[in-house]
Design a protein that fits this description.
By secondary structure, the protein is of the alpha+beta class. 68% of the residues lie in helices and 7% in strands.
C-alpha cells in the first residue's frame, strides 16, 4: 500500500479530483487540505496500481509543469480488513510488482554515486579478493566479491542510456571506470606486498592461473550476461532482492585484482624471487584478466540496457523534467549568473558610452 501526496494549484484541483474518482474510484478516500495558492491531496493506492496512477498524473502535467507528487510507503493500515489483506497477498504472489520509472530512477541514481564510504568498501573488497588470489583461497575471493559495490554505477550507465539521460549515463561510465581503476591499483599494491612470499606461495596460484586461460572468458561472459539481466530485473521490481549483484562482482572484482597483482609482480618480482620470474606467463595472465574485466563489463552493461529498454517501453523521460526547469535553487543560480553577465556587459559598454558623451561635449 502506498500513500500519494499531491500538491496542486487551486485552479486545477477539480480536474485531479475528477480524474481520481473516474479512473480509480477514489472519490470517498481522498483527503484535501487547501491553502492560499495550492491544495494538498492525499489518498492510498494498491502497490500494483502505482505505475498507472503516476502515468495519469504526469499526463496532466503534475510534477512537470506545476505541483509535486510524493509517494510514501505504508507499512501497515488499520482500516484494511483481513479479507482484503489476503487478496493483496494472492495478487502480489501472482502479479509482477514492477516499480514506476520515477522509483527506478531515484533508486539507481542513489546507487550510481561514488562516496568515500563506497570507495573504502571497494578497497576492502579488493584486499580480500587479492589475498584470496595470492594464497589460493577461494573463500576469501568470494567474500571480497560480496563486499563490492560495482553494481550501482553499471546499472546507472545502462539505465541512463535506456532512458536517454546523458548525465546519468556519463556518471555511471565515469564511476565504473574509477572503481575498476581503484581495484586494479589495489591489486597492484597487494602484488608488491606479497612479492617476497611469491616463491613460498608458488605463484601463480591456481586461482591466479585459471584467470589467465582464454577459455575463462567464454564462461565469464555467460555469468556476466545472466548477472546483468538478473540485476536489471531486480532493480525494476520492488519484491526482488538485488543479491544478483554478487554475480556482477564475482565477474569483475577477482580478474581486476588479478591483473593488478600480475602486472606489479612483473615489475618487482625479480627483486624478491630467488628464481627467474616467468614474465611471459604473468603478462599473459595479467592481460587476459584485464580482457575478462572489459568483456564482462560490456556484457553486463549491454544485457542490463536491453532489460531496462524493454521494461521502459519507450516511455518519455518526464519524471526529471520538473527538477531541471522548476527547481527554485537552480532559478536563483540562473538569476545570479544573468546578473553577473549583465554587470560585465554594462562595464564593457561604459568606455564606449563615455567616449560618445565626451565627443558630444
Amino acid at each position: 500500500m502506498k500513500l500519494f501526496q499531491l500538491t496542486v494549484p487551486n485552479p486545477k484541483v477539480k480536474q485531479f479530483l475528477d480524474l481520481l474518482d473516474a479512473e480509480f474510484g477514489l472519490g470517498n478516500e481522498i483527503m484535501t487540505m487547501e491553502s492560499f495558492k495550492s491544495t494538498l491531496i492525499q489518498f492510498r493506492i494498491e502497490d500494483t496500481q502505482v505505475h498507472f496512477v503516476l502515468e495519469e498524473l504526469q499526463a496532466l502535467g503534475l510534477g512537470i509543469s506545476f505541483g509535486f507528487c510524493d509517494v510514501l510507503d505504508l507499512k501497515a493500515s488499520t482500516t484494511v480488513n483481513s479479507k482484503r489483506l489476503r487478496t493483496q497477498a494472492i495478487q502480489s504472489s501472482t502479479e509482477s510488482s514492477s516499480l514506476a520509472p520515477s522509483q527506478i530512477y531515484s533508486n539507481i541514481v542513489t546507487k550510481t554515486v561514488l562516496t568515500v564510504d563506497t570507495v573504502i568498501i571497494m578497497c576492502m573488497s579488493a584486499a580480500m579478493a587479492g589475498i584470496g588470489l595470492a594464497i589460493n583461497n577461494r573463500i576469501y575471493i568470494m567474500a571480497g566479491s560480496l563486499l563490492s559495490r560495482l553494481m550501482g554505477p553499471l546499472m546507472g550507465a545502462s539505465y541512463g542510456l535506456a532512458i536517454l539521460d546523458q548525465e546519468l549515463f556519463l556518471t555511471g561510465v565515469r564511476n565504473v571506470t574509477i572503481a575498476l581503476m581503484i581495484i586494479v591499483s589495489f591489486g597492484a599494491l597487494i602484488g608488491v606486498a606479497f612479492a617476497p612470499f611469491a616463491d613460498a606461495l608458488l605463484w601463480p596460484t591456481d586461482e591466479m592461473a585459471t584467470r589467465g586461460v582464454y577459455l575463462e572468458m567464454m564462461f565469464g561472459a555467460i555469468i556476466a550476461i545472466c548477472g546483468g539481466a538478473s540485476v536489471a530485473i531486480a532493480e525494476s521490481n520492488e519484491d526482488l532482492s538485488s543479491v544478483a549483484g554478487i554475480a556482477i562482482s564475482s565477474a569483475l572484482v577477482p580478474p581486476a585484482v588479478n591483473s593488478g597483482i600480475c602486472f606489479s609482480y612483473l615489475i618487482v618480482g625479480d627483486y624478491f624471487s630467488k628464481n627467474e620470474v616467468d614474465t611471459g606467463l604473468f603478462f599473459r595472465i595479467a592481460t587476459s584478466s584485464l580482457g575478462i574485466v572489459v568483456m564482462n563489463s560490456f556484457f553486463i552493461y549491454a544485457t542490463a540496457w536491453v532489460v531496462f529498454k524493454t521494461r521502459s517501453g519507450g516511455s518519455r523521460f518526464i519524471f526529471k523534467k520538473r527538477d531541471d526547469t522548476h527547481d527554485p535553487f537552480k532559478k536563483l543560480e540562473r538569476k545570479r549568473k544573468d546578473s553577473i553577465l549583465l554587470g560585465s556587459a554594462k562595464m564593457s559598454d561604459s568606455p564606449t558610452q563615455f567616449r560618445k558623451t565626451a565627443s558630444k561635449t
